[in-house]
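FAQ: What does the model actually see?

It sees only this:
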Amino acid sequence: MFEFFLTLTGSIVVDCNCFFQPEPSINRAVVERTFQDGTSNATGLWLGSSYQLQGFAVDGLELAIEAATHKTPLKSGKENFRLSFRISNLPYSPELQDSRSQMYREHKEKIEKGLDVFRTSSLKDYFAGCTVESFGPVRGKAYTSVTSTCKFTLDPFSRTLQKQEVYEELKRLTHGFTKLGPSYELEEQSLVVEGYSPVETDEQESGRSELQFWAIILICVFTLIGFVLLLLLCFLVIFCLRKKSHLYQVQQGMYGVYFPHLNTRKVH
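And it is asked to produce this:
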């Protein structure tokens, strides 16, 4: 990292930090020479086409060293988080899907202003703004669902911003996610940040537990039905065998034992 001191025409001094990937060839003299070559022309030093420089200085060399494993690269740029939630006191209207309608523009502006509550949060140093992307209906309810994207600008050495942090911070700022700005009442458990919602997680776990419970009940019921059917089958076999044994009567006569059903003589 190099610290630049720029003096603009009008005695305005600008202090800024510039970051470079660690290279053995980068030093203060190289940075100064490169900056001067890139800003000088026939009339002096110019930053872009608008700002004329009276001078500049480079100071404060500090190298940014990555972890030896190179598995955790430096983070920079913007982190975008997609938010979706439901407004309970805003009845859905097809006009909310027409970006040219007055209703769409009015509520878009008010909701974006309400989401600016991040500017008073612990994330205020990173917050860049929120943009409402779309409105939609809520099945079975006269609510309106909102999808928006909130942007957070992170410097190269900041920690990674997690979606759980954004969720918890917005929930705190909106009184448990019940009110957004002065106008909107929210469905408390409708907030989802980048697919994350502890409510949905609990519901999924509850659903899995309930599914396991019903699976155990069904197994027991089918086992009982199978046992009953087995008993009925045994009873039927025994009944058939007993009935068949009565057809083959064994009688004791004066000349010994004989079987009437094998007698071929006609009995009168």
